[in-house]
Amino acid sequence: MNFFFKTKQKGPVELVKATHDAMVKVESGSEHQRSRANDEISKNVASMLQILRDGGADRKVPDTSSEQVAQLAQEIYTTELLPLLIGNLGRLEFETRKEVSIIFGILLRRRIGTREPTVEYLNSRTNVLASLVTGYANPDAAIFCGNMLRECFKHEALVRTTLNLPEFLQFFDYVEGENFDVTSDAFNSFHEALTKFKEPANAFLTENYDAFFAKYTQLLESSNYVVRRQSLKLLGEILLEHKNFHVMIAFIRESANLKMVMNALNDRSKSIQYEAFHIFKIFVANPKKAPEVHKILYKNKDKLVKFLVDFQNDKNSDEQFRDEKAFLVKGIRELEPPPA
Q1: What is the 3-state secondary structure (H, E, C) of 222-290?
Q2: Predicted local distance difference test score (pLDDT) of residue 8
């Protein structure tokens, strides 16, 4: 007679503890220990994801009544498993990295009444958010860290906290790296952080204006075509956002910024010219131009008018573009000589 014994499934507490113990071996064990620990982690993470799915936590309107889901979430918070998984994401199997990012997103969407426990948890542990940002330095973890970051950026409190991290300025390195997939993903996250919620973005740009734009200028002058185009487009969005009025005024007062934008207007790429055009019009439209800005525009008045009259005439079927060109031409033609 054959007897079949069904292996007892681990509960939430056992799963989290076993994963926590295995992570220690992944960090510091021998090669054999790391391999076995990775197998254990992969099985446990898959089981955790199944608990969350079976409990309805991955629905658009998550079910928060499941006892197992609540127990699993609490154990993950209490044992600090999230920082451990994220900090070692690049050491895990590919499928496990993917499942960790899915679990992270499910937990982030979880609500108890009006509370968002994972948002509260992350907001009090800036090291986790910092690890997600610096995860872009590791090509094996970058895309998954990016996915988790953008899940965080759906919550204003987490955007505010991330913007205030010293690590946030490292995005300037990540968006100009050699790996196209990583740099594109990093720019998507960078863009989200600076445009999704207006209040925290404005506070960050106002408080860190000099440090931010010293680095941003390097992106605008990058030898990488994609970086330049994306950076010009994002700059236009930032400056034209009405909540960033004082940031815009500070930017268009600098004659060096005008020269940089005029150089971009003259770029070989029509796409870069077009993005530069939308920034250039802000300089011209400003009724209180800084003396040096006024001087540059007046000195180049005739050249600018001729340039703008012929500028991308293939887009003249776009009424708004045509009107904006006419407005700029008129504004430059009517420039008075700068005060002596």
Answers
A1: CCCHHHHHHHHHHHHHHHHCHHHHHHHHHHHCCHHHHHHHHHHHCCCCHHHHHHHHHHHHHHHHCCCCC
A2: 64
